[in-house]
Amino acid sequence: MGYNASNISVLEGLDPVRKRPGMYVGSTTVKGLNHLIYEIMDNSVDEHLAGYCNNITVILGKDGSATVEDDGRGIPVDLHEKGYPAERIIMTTLHAGGKFDNSNYKTSGGLHGVGSSVVNALSEKMIVQVMRDGCVYQDEYSKGKPVLKLKKGELLPIVDKTEKTGTKITFYPDGSIFDTTKFKADALRERIKETAYLNPELTVSFINERDGKEMEIFHEPEGISGFVDSLLLQENEEKRLTKTVSIAGEKDGISVKVSFCFSQRFGDNIVSFCNNINTMEGGTHVNGFKSGFAKVINQYAHELGNIKDKNVNFTGNDTRSGMTAVISISHPSPRFEGQTKTKLDNTEVQSVVVSVLNAKLQYCFDRDLDTLKTIISRAEMSARLRKEEERIRTNLSDKKFAFEGNGKLARQELNDPSKCEIFIVEGKSAGGTAKTGRDRTFQAILPIRGKILNVEKQSVDKVLANEEIKAIVNALGCGFSQGYGNDFNINNLKYDKIIIAADADVDGGHISTLLLTLFYRFMPELIYAGKLYRAMPPLYRVKPKKGKAEYIYDDKALNEYRAKHGNNFDVQRYKGLGEMDSEQLWETTMDPKTRKLKQICMQDVLDANRLTSVLMGEEVAPRREYIISNADKATLDV
Ligand code: 0R9
Question: Which CATH code, of 3.30.70.120, 3.40.140.10, 3.30.565.10, 2.60.40.790, is assigned to 15-218?
Fold first, then answer.
């Protein structure tokens, strides 16, 4: 596009932005604050999409500033028809942009040139440097107003000479507008990473001087296929079932890129973008992808004879069971709706995505039958489970299905779930001690007895018939899911923390393992949401001849204690939670001020799964190996 200073339309000054900042950046919380950087970055990404910029650098300064620099053409600095440099117009007027010609200028998520003036209005100070025509031009603003008055027809001051071209903007957010002026570095880093995956030819460097971190360079030539792999890695790479498939196509000026992969995960995980904007609420591109994908898989399943009855189909959920996908489309004039304006609304997109999928997926699957067969067999499994679940749902009376409690739960007094926690305590005596020792205002105790059922190998109805499991599901209040048509709803969870309290020995480890498997299979969202914890009771209580008793949590710490105190102290080893009195249990395991909790993450579940199949599986050799290699831990308790 030939830029011409006259094609910038001038609409409004910046007063409305300072009056109602939330309207322009979402909110005045740290989220809105970070948004300022994203707006400026998006302009650089636009310049990349126009074909002129390959490198963007983002810096969080020690002085609280944020800087974005790109190596594009530089914002035009020639005189606008009103007699002022174009850069001035861009920075001081709302809705000023130089790219109204959609067909020539692909847009990223920015407010199309509006962004930088909004950031300017909400900044205590902003410095703009433009590298163009061998010169560095500089301009400065305070709360959106130019610091240097220019006469009509006067150009920006030149502060240096340079060979480079580009734009560098440094700003200091206005503390009188935002709740905080401390940018959230983690969220910014994630956004930068995402930008790199969505723009495979772009390199984005992140320098967090503020926190004294080393520079990080994000360059993701694999694009969204690399994005899928990184999502999978966050979940569990070793459970990958297929390679990552990528397709791309274009129709009616809408370009569509999709990458996906299948793993052992439950359900699907679809991350979607339109013009680099993360469409958290989905929309027509996601709907098109879902229906297009189901159509293609069903077609193959009939052709290959996996589905015999021509009137039967897999559901969309069946075909996506285990899928991790990234969808990225670009659209010349996207419309967004939804609560957070992150749902793509353009109806024409759906059929475009379907038709791109139809053609390109068939091309892929015709050349990669292995992947296709894996997807179909996952869909078959999903359909079987779905039918089994439907059968159980109709067979169980409503009353039975509501999991009548068996009375063992000791409830807390408060009703506010965000303040309450539940301890699932192994063993009858420990359960009793915990009931006495707890703070009954916010802590509930659910004792469970003996070994709970290993859910790994059981059918759904057997699992649900188990008394201990019923008690757990009933106490938590959020239902359960079997991956499909589930009635699990995390919003109904009655507690903020679910804490597994088991003995610090091999048996206790085994019970925790079984519980983890249960949660993973039937309430995986609880793990993703970080609601599940393991209590870490101490292994020893030591008391020197003179001095205060202390609790010790592992053997390493005991050795260190011994090195310090010689043998001049008494040691009590706790074989189980039940050996502590209620005060000790409160102090060591339950009091939020002194206890140690470990938040359960996916890795713990993976380890648990592995352990469960070793201990409970059919194969003897690995079990023997486990017992032998853990014999030292086991004999301690004998
Ligand atoms: C550090 C953040 N970068 C930017 O904000 C940025 C805006 C920008 C830009 C152009 C090039 N690089 C940029 N970086 C540009 C240049 C030209 C035409 N269109 C865009 C050209 O040289 O012909 N601009 C964004 C809006 C405008 N420029 C415009 F409205 F002034 F044209």
Answer: 3.30.565.10
